[in-house]
Amino acid sequence: MPDRPTAVLAMRADVVDLVLPADLRARLETCVRLHPDVITSGFDTLAARTALRAADLLITGWGCPLIGPDILDVAPRLGAVIHAAGSVKEHVHPAVWQRGISVSSAADANAGPVIEFTLATIVLAARRTLGSAAQYARGDLPGFGERQGGDGATIGVIGASRIGRGVIDRLTTATAGYRVLLADPYVSAQTAAELGVQLVELDELCRSSDIVTVHAPDLPETHHLLDARRLALLRDGAALINTARGRLIDTDALVRECSTGRFDAYLDVSEPEPLPHGHPLFGLPNVLVTPHIAGCQGNEVRRLGAYAVDEVRRWTRGERLLGEVSAADLEHIA
């Protein structure tokens, strides 16, 4: 390996300069040699294959193609995949770990904005914002006594993931004024007590919460975790927030429930994603659908690049990767 290992960028063309603007590239090039060719689509072009043969590490991002056995055969020097985004499940094949290649993700850097977005949405939901806005638009100004605040509301958190725990940490402060329930089959009663929450079964959480916020990973066993039966358990006047993955909720069942006006839904993710133009959820006054904007957006995206650059520096020094992802992690991460 040369004094400075060779790094190859593999991500969509429209995000390269957002993730790694000039100042971050300058920092990166103090510890690696950046290959001049950026892989912005597939790995099957001559330029991509040439870059892969020279790669000691790949710095990946949104839109990176699957790194499978056939790609690894073309990249004999590859020692690490550093992902300047969140989940690696869509582009890192198990063969990567089988060949002893290190994998890191900037999920920690992406978590902060999602946590903040979720907390802001909880505040909106606690104030019954969608109903108040619709009422106001009809010319009916809610009286002061009709208005609702968040003190004493019960918040049900589904999943003590990285983001779920960040949300819990903020919800359980002395000044928050919330009671917090948690449903997560992998969390013990002792851990729940340390988090400051009450551990309950998922059905009980649905029945008992004023606001339900979803932070579980997208796994085969969590597909439609909130199905028609569980959605029917939600209280009248409740709110459902999803900043995790759309596949966790049965969309057809959600449309049926929300069409009654029985509860509100704040959805930053959907199934399918994106929702087709004219989808029923767009037309419901008690539903707010946003286009997957909870994570890093715009100038925030450089946070992902900065995290990845720090990880590359640690890798070149033989230090522990703070965002390291193991093959075993695939079973329970988003």
From TrEMBL:
Tell me its family: Belongs to the D-isomer specific 2-hydroxyacid dehydrogenase family.
* CDD domains, sorted: 2-Hacid_dh_8
InterPro entries recorded for this chain?
A: D-2-hydroxyacid_DH, D-isomer_DH_CS, D-isomer_DH_NAD-bd, NAD(P)-bd_dom_sf
Protein name (record): Hydroxyacid dehydrogenase
Q: PANTHER family, alphabetically?
A: D-ISOMER SPECIFIC 2-HYDROXYACID DEHYDROGENASE FAMILY PROTEIN (AFU_ORTHOLOGUE AFUA_6G10090) (PTHR42789)
Q: What are the entry keywords?
A: NAD, Oxidoreductase
Q: Any idea where the D-isomer specific 2-hydroxyacid dehydrogenase NAD-binding domain is?
A: 122-294
Give start-end of the signal peptide: none
Which domain of life does the UniProt lineage start with? Bacteria
Which Pfam families has this protein been placed in?
A: 2-Hacid_dh_C
